[in-house]
Specification:
Distance between the termini: 21 Å
Strand order of the largest sheet: 4-5-6-7
Largest sheet: 4 strands, antiparallel
Number of strands: 11
Shape: globular
Oligomer: single chain
Length: about 140
C-alpha cells in the first residue's frame, strides 16, 4: 500500500519507516532490533501485516538469519518479532516464505528442502501440512 518502507541503515540497523498517508509528510521510524545488519532483502506479506528480513547464513552458525515481524495495531504501528529461523545456505533473492493473497496460509521452505504450510497468522503453531518430498525443494510458488 506504499505506507511503509523497510531498509537497512548501516548505523541504526534494520528499520521500517511508516508513513501517515494522504497528504501528510509525517513518518515514524521503527527499529527491528533482532534483525541482522547483514540483511540483504525483505519480503512483505500481501496485506503488509508481516515483513520478513533475510540475511545470509553464516557458516557453522545457528543464529537466526530470517526474521518474521508482525505489524502491530494502527495506534502504535510497531513491529513485533513473530518468528526467527536459521537457514544456513540462504541464497540472495531466494523465496523461503510466501503467503496466499488473503494471508490465511503461508508456505515456508526449510533448509532440508521440506515445505511447511502454516496458518498465515500464527508462525508458532504446528504446521498444517509438512511436505516431505523425495527430493529437496529448491524453490516454490504458492497460489
Amino acid at each position: 500500500d506504499g505506507l511503509a518502507l523497510a531498509l537497512v541503515d548501516p548505523t541504526a540497523g534494520v528499520q521500517v519507516v511508516s508513513f501517515a498517508g494522504g497528504d501528510s509528510q509525517e513518518s515514524t521510524i521503527h527499529t527491528l532490533p533482532a534483525a541482522l545488519r547483514s540483511t540483504q532483502s525483505f519480503l512483505w506479506s500481501p496485506k503488509s501485516s508481516f515483513v520478513v528480513s533475510l540475511a545470509p547464513g553464516q557458516k557453522g552458525s545457528s543464529e537466526p538469519n530470517i526474521h518474521v515481524w508482525r505489524r502491530g495495531d494502527s495506534a502504535t504501528d510497531e513491529y513485533i518479532l513473530e518468528a526467527a529461523y536459521n537457514f544456513p545456505k540462504l541464497e540472495k533473492g531466494a523465496r523461503v516464505i510466501q503467503w496466499t493473497p488473503d494471508e490465511s496460509l503461508c508456505a515456508r521452505l526449510l533448509p532440508d528442502g521440506h515445505v511447511h504450510i502454516l496458518n498465515g497468522t500464527d508462525f508458532l503453531s504446528e504446521p498444517l501440512v509438512d511436505l516431505k518430498l523425495s527430493h529437496a525443494a529448491q524453490c516454490f510458488e504458492l497460489r
